[in-house]
Amino acid sequence: MQQPRENEVSVLRYGHRPGRDDRMTTHVGLTARALGADQIIFPDNATQPAETVTDIVSRFGGPFDVQRTDTLNAIIREWSGTVVHLTMYGERVQDVTKKIRERCLHDHPLLIVIGGEKVPSDVYEWADWNVAVTNQPHSEVAGLAVFLDRLFMGKELEQEWADAEHVVIPQACGKRVVDAE
Amino acid sequence: MQQPRENEVSVLRYGHRPGRDDRMTTHVGLTARALGADQIIFPDNATQPAETVTDIVSRFGGPFDVQRTDTLNAIIREWSGTVVHLTMYGERVQDVTKKIRERCLHDHPLLIVIGGEKVPSDVYEWADWNVAVTNQPHSEVAGLAVFLDRLFMGKELEQEWADAEHVVIPQACGKRVVDAE
């Protein structure tokens, strides 16, 4: 697998059940892309989500890398920078995001681990931070979205996309999509 | 259906296909609850998501109302306060959230419409605001999460829960769940 660049933010989806999890795993990947991450790392069996996210990149732009791997544990354990694991059992996002942001300035790249099915306790140990977006049960997609928006302090909403075929123009009412030049 | 209280924020899931959408619709409901909304309004056929969210309320606390209705269009059209429709085609969330927050002070309650399958153009017309959390395709759950976190300016993360059976205690590592007193 390609090594991450220094300032990169990668999202790793831990666990995937083909069929049952396809949509949720796809949404994790699309949310990572839309909200400023540079790369999604899927489990090797997440073929359909990887195809869908790759297709969105080709139509709506990048750069955004889509990877699949059968060595999720090794990637987390041997990550060269900071590892954040999002879990409802972790520390409160409002208490730790500033510290994470500061640490990533020195200890990048950042890997964000998103649980699907049951996450083994090792992952809690390997992570530098276990972070909860509320200590309530809700959605790994929602947790990832809020974490990224807070990590980047909204700057991710201003990013520009390269090599897009289509561009959506914000409208008060209705839909406007133009072909990129 | 119960009338919303004046200062309430309700989330309405527009459209649901039983089976195929169960998990995504459930995540919309759980995200609404966890991130500060007061009520979820599901389509009448969303029986399984309604059961799951109701179960979470009974175990992790409320108050949070779970409604099902076969009159989604009438609820949106005749809403007595402000209607926000989240869509990737809308105005940029970073440009309009402050205005929405101010308007809701005078023109509450707030209804947030979350599309599932194709949303008819009428909904764009009925809404006071069509709002995009990025103009990129990603996830209605992610969009709802970021919108609520920005609407409430993070205060939703501090809320306390009444009548919970279980309380998760934030931990740097591992899991700690205690029975509520």
Automatic annotation (TrEMBL), chains A, B:
Keywords: Cytoplasm, Methyltransferase, S-adenosyl-L-methionine, Transferase, tRNA processing. Its EC number is 2.1.1.206. Pfam families: Trm56. The keyword Membrane does not apply. It comes from the Archaea. GO terms for molecular function: tRNA (cytidine(56)-2'-O)-methyltransferase activity. It is found in: Cytoplasm. Homodimer. This is tRNA (cytidine(56)-2'-O)-methyltransferase.
